[in-house]
Specification:
Layout (H helix, E strand, L loop, with lengths): L2 E12 L2 E12 L3 E5 L6 H9 L7 E11 L6 E2 L17 E6 L8 H7 L2 E4 L12 H11 L7 H11 L15 H13 L5 E5 L7 H17 L3 E6 L2 H7 L2 E6 L2 E6 L1 H11 L14 E14 L3 E14 L14 H8 L7 E8 L2 E4 L9 H4 L17
Parallel strand pairs: 3-9, 3-10, 7-8, 8-9
Antiparallel strand pairs: 1-2, 1-4, 4-5, 4-6, 10-11, 12-13, 12-14, 14-15
Helix pairs in contact: 3-4, 3-5, 4-5, 5-6, 7-8
Length: 388
């Protein structure tokens, strides 16, 4: 395999702290690199540096892409295409070309041209048009690259077929499960026919069954589109399944590199076991749910039973777990409890002091008396990303 990306002595500093320390890593064309590390180890920073979409004030070292470029149309391909005709203009043999993302400005044409051929799946950030249908989300990506011909719809449908989402073509994106949203993100990224895929914890919040589906889709896309991939995770089994080579990041430095199974075993040895929590006395019931039902009407699927006659109660001081696969109704149940979504039927009572509040009745004098004491942490982040 040809050497594709060469990271040499890469160091990035924020506020006097080295978030990446002297990173050295070679990535061959067609290779899948797995990065293991705990939260805050520097995985996401490294992914963004490889992508080249951000400028860093305090950065040293180099991130060199070894590429093939057509002198006539400027098209860029992986290094194995050197000496072969350009697949876009078919004019002349492509020539070897190197781009160093550290040396080049973020707005440099060469760096931007390379970045356009890099796809990324971000951690917990789906970046979809939530009110649009799934197929429209992919069509919008095609429009962004000027692909608006009569076969654009066929192309969008083929991309969704590639990620196993043909059955969700006409569904509104916001109503999809987490695993389905990740596959729409991948389809949108595949629009640009990328040569390099960065997958930053793509299944970190998904249940095992859904995560396996997403992993299979990613693995197939990497092969079908001849991509090189770097994938991060704090789950060792993900790296063992997908990677050809693995590294461990700890405090911004690579502390191990090698075969995925060996590296994964080393990483698991670093993770301390979780001590069993001491049981604490629980108070009286504070949430009481009886016969909760939520139905949706879909043009293509008819009546959808999002929540189907569930009952439970939660005691004061209790940590209550609601487990289930993607699409099982966990988020819908949580949003009904918060008063964000109205139930079809059922009874929901929340105790405030000694008084029970009916959460099915809207208004400040009804469920508003309880919601001011309640909060929700969504699966997707909702932050002002460009603010401190």
């Amino acid at each position: 395999m040809s050497l594709f990306i060469e990271v040499k002595d890469l160091t990035i500093t924020y506020d006097g702290v080295n978030v990446l320390k002297n990173i050295n890593l070679n990535i061959n064309e067609g290779e899948v690199i797995g990065i293991l590390g705990r939260s805050g180890a520097g995985k996401t920073i490294l992914m963004h540096a490889l992508r080249g979409a951000e400028e860093y004030e305090n950065i040293s070292g180099s991130i060199i892409y070894h590429l093939a470029r057509c002198d006539k149309c400027g098209h860029i391909d992986p290094p194995s295409k050197v000496g072969k005709p350009c697949r876009l203009c078919n004019h002349e043999d492509m020539k070897a070309f190197d781009a160093d993302f550290v040396a080049l400005s973020q707005h440099d044409h060469e760096r931007r041209s390379v970045s356009m051929r890099i796809a990324i799946m971000l951690q917990r950030t789906f970046a979809l048009y939530g009110d649009d249908q799934v197929v429209a989300n992919v069509m919008n990506s095609l429009k962004e690259i000027g692909y608006t011909g009569p076969d654009a719809m066929s192309r969008a449908m083929k991309l969704l077929e590639d990620v196993r989402l043909s059955h969700r073509l006409m569904h509104v994106a916001r109503d999809l499960s987490g695993g389905e949203k990740q596959r729409v993100v991948l389809a949108r990224q595949l629009v640009r026919n990328p040569m390099f895929l960065l997958a930053d914890e793509p299944t970190g919040t998904l249940d095992p069954r859904t995560a396996d589906i997403v992993h299979d889709v990613i693995e197939k896309a990497v092969k079908d589109y001849n991509m090189t991939m770097v994938i991060t995770s704090h789950w060792s089994e993900v790296i063992e399944k997908l990677a050809d080579k693995a590294i461990i990041l700890e405090d911004g430095a690579i502390i191990s590199e090698g075969e995925p199974c060996k590296v994964a075993k080393e990483f698991m040895g670093m993770v301390s076991s979780i001590e069993k929590n001491v049981k604490v006395p629980l108070g009286a019931p504070i949430i009481d749910v009886k016969n909760l039902v939520k139905k949706y009407i879909s043009v293509t699927r008819g009546v959808i039973h999002a929540v189907n006659d569930i009952s439970f109660n939660v005691k004061e001081g209790e940590i209550f777990g609601l487990a289930g696969t993607s699409g099982a109704g966990k988020t819908t149940t949580s949003e009904i409890l918060m008063g964000i979504v109205a139930p079809t039927k059922g009874d929901i009572q929340v105790r405030v002091g000694d008084e029970w509040v009916d959460m099915t009745k809207p208004g400040p004098d009804n469920r508003g008396r309880a919601t001011k004491y309640m909060g929700i942490l969504h699966q997707e982040y909702g932050l002002y990303t460009h603010r401190t």
